[in-house]
Amino acid sequence: MFNRRAFGWCCFVVALYWYLGLFRNALIDDAFINLLYARNILRTSTWGVFPGLTANSATSPLNTLLLAFVSWFVGPTMQASILTALTAFVFIAWFLLRISFHMFRVEKFGVLAFAALLMNPLLISTIGLESISFVTLFVALVYLFLVERWYLLAVTIGLLILTRADGALLFLVVLVFIPTYRMRIKVSVIVMGCIAPWYLFSWLRLGSLIPDTFFIKTGQGSWGAWTFSNGAWMYFDRFPFQTVLSVCFLPLLALGISRRVSTVPVLRLIFMLGIVHYFGYSVLRVPPYHWYYTTEVVVVVLLGCFGLGVCSQYAGENTVLRQIIEGATVAGFLIPALGMFFFLASGEFRVREMPIHTNWAYHERYKEVGLWLKENTSGQGIELRGEIGSMAYYCDCFLLDAFSDRKWLAQYVSDRATRPGVLSWLFRVNFLFFTEETRLPTVLYQLVGSTSRSNSSVGFIKQWETITNWAPAGLIVFSSY
Prior knowledge:
By secondary structure, the protein is mainly alpha-helical. The protein has two domains: 4-346, no CATH class; 363-480, no CATH class. The protein has helices spanning 4-21, 29-44, 61-74, 78-104, 108-118, 121-124, 131-146, 150-163, 167-177, 181-205, 212-220, 231-238, 240-246, 259-262, 265-284, 294-314, 319-346, 363-376, 389-395, 407-417, 422-430, and strands at residues 381-385, 398-400, 443-450, 462-466, 474-480. It has a five-stranded mixed β-sheet, covered by helices on one side. Strand 1, helix 19 (389-395) and strand 2 form a beta-alpha-beta unit. Helix 8 (150-163) runs antiparallel to helix 9.
């Protein structure tokens, strides 16, 4: 018997695969760090950038393991990143449809939310990172809260924390919304049980409960005047069209003025998740990497779409209100879709760089540099100042920076562990089992990436000019150390 719904899902998956495949050659540089980890897990069971040499710069253990699993079938290639994102988006769609049907007895507002996320320039620019997996679990969390499946909710929170450690902030918010004290205790125990094996492994084997990226990013501080708290304006300055599209559902937050919208428990939960996440990152004063804003974008989309659904329920016979809601719903479908179509069509559906990013070179240029290094450096150590992911992936050589070489961390820990106070004690506990990697090769070369071509050095061996919408006149210089 012909199953129309199953056929529809099959067609949806095929169309989704085609759409995501358009961005295959535009993955941002950090996506290749994940691929490096996946490749080394498969090659030598190593958690690190180089085979056999341990590192701890993979922010998301769960996403790294998922990517390695997919890579086991198709290889640690860009295809693995696309298939991982494809699977995540399928689950996002399913959960959003279930949320919409549970709340409104129709799936329309779930479809609206999914279309808004799929066509969101900022979210689509995170393919290859853990952000889309994080969104999947975030949406699953909302659904499980809605249907009061507390034990599954606890497992989901645990997986969320393993996807990004800032999931712990969301965990604290969810605890407040769980109705009974006893259930909060049970949920907390399950969450701790889910995350304990990884954190124990990370502490004992990787030398730290917290990935190195936490110390790298917080140590970077601001980009000039820009931090996470005001970084959205920086992206508006560089990518105005794409940024506006990413937050085009912001006006719908005005629906929260309605008491019937603002008192819906699940919408209040979503709102508080967004607020706590934003202020948590703002306090850390980390740089405004675009993927950090994923949670805020998802919160805005969900509040807007499901806020429309609540208003639709209570519009009753008010013809004018119903027409306004229907018009906003149609606009919610068309604006993201037409915006993304315009972006893709402007490049003749050949995407060279993501809609929003902070990379200094196209993927093709980094690939060219990486392959040249592979042929001309004979496995020697290369000190890197620039973006490591793509070039290290293609050169399969020892590019040494903070993400791959932990020498800096030994001094970092030593400086802070000797200071007086509680923080010093926490540092000593966290790095109790840390040992510095000593098997790295001697550095003979230097590779420097810059956003300015005025940094060309005398006596360089080779250099490559780079250009992106973020850095329109960059340069990569290779020289003797």
